[in-house]
Amino acid sequence: MTVLPDGVSVDAEDGETVLRALSRAGLRYRVGCRRGGCGICKVRLVLGEVAYERPIATTVLSDEERIEGICLSCRAIPITSIAIELQEGDRLRKVLGFAFPA
Amino acid sequence: MSVMRLGFVHIRVTDLEEARNHYSNTMGMKVVHEEPGKLWLKCWDEYDHHSLVLEEGGVGLVKLGYKVQTKDDLERYEKRAQQFGCTTGRVSAGENLTVGDGVAISVPSGHRVELYDEIEYVGTDTGALNPDPWPRDGRGIAAHWIDHALVAADDPGLLERFFTEALDFHVAERAITNISHPEVLGSWMACGESPHDIAVIKGPDAKLHHFAFHLEDWNAILRAGDIMSMDDVSVDIGPTRHGITRGTTIYFFDPSGNRNEVFAGLGYRTFPDFPTVNWTEDQLAKGIVYISRELNEAFTTVFT
What we know:
The complex is a heterodimer. Chain A is α+β, with helices and mostly antiparallel strands. In chain A, 13% of the residues lie in helices and 26% in strands. The longest helix of chain A has 7 residues, at 18-24. Chain A starts with a strand and ends in an 8-residue tail after the last strand. Chain B has two domains: 3-116, 2,3-Dihydroxybiphenyl 1,2-Dioxygenase, domain 1, CATH 3.10.180.10; 145-301, 2,3-Dihydroxybiphenyl 1,2-Dioxygenase, domain 1 (Roll), CATH 3.10.180. In chain B, the strands form two sheets. Chain B has a nine-stranded mixed β-sheet with strand order 14-15-16-13-9-12-11-10-17. Chain B is globular, with a radius of gyration of 18 Å. Classes of the chains: A alpha+beta, B alpha/beta. Chain A binds chain B through residues 30-38, 40, 54-60, and chain B through 12, 14-15, 18, 57-60, 234, 236, 253-259, 297-298, 301-304.
């Protein structure tokens, strides 16, 4: 998957969420509960498809948002190659720079 | 008599089986009753029938139950809540499993608070006759009891007024903008002698920030943190200490994203004449996380 606007690409394993794949690559961005309950980690899906294996409350992610391509990155699992755009004002931060040199 | 304690927390969870695993195997609660889509649980050191109700579908708080001592208390607080301007209603015995007649109050922040004076007594796991200090078969974190809840309110000062004027709580600590402009940003209030039984911070009305489990001490907090890592629990903040209440803490999330806390160290006792401690906005991060003095973004943005 590719993360915009940084343009960083990361491989996700089968069944892995967007958040898990980015964390495993030593990257951080804006997240909240990491369990689908708060909606803080929403990102915009600009390319590809994601699926949810667990229920998401409609109070957290509305049908309108889903149609607009907003997804909950802590629960969304890529099922194709995807490109996501972080929320305005957010960016990727590298927390394991020694393990994942640029 | 005053309100005695936070008796039960009723929340929504997106997946009941994941929630069952978290609250029973990680937190160490016991499932005391179940019906399709609903679970009732208690901690080993609690003697009432249950302290947590989990209902499948969505996230967030359904209601908080506070236990009072007598029927007279119910009537008095119902009247006082109405005088404050709140909508109230009666709750019939059995509407809450094993709980007697009660009073439901829609408090100024939109949360539902229910008062009751009777619930089935089942006893603690160690009993009340020559007891051991803790049960040998405790699971996971083996939390002692549900201690307090922190809710969000658009006007924390109004909710503080409600709990103090209508329900006789007293303010242990308060967060304000500054001394010359003391707008209330948060309030930690007690009905008994512990530092807080309810707390409120500025945020969206009717939302839950967290509810907390009491642990014995700082060692138990560290051990709880180890268990959270073993069980892949999403941790928000800690282990650290609060400036406010002096308690030691870890904030974390249940599998639906509802925030929990493990809380230890009753830092002091709050008698009715306890002088309120104030924290100004510029020092509030220190009040909440005393050691790092820096809050993460999630702490002030995640409500369910």
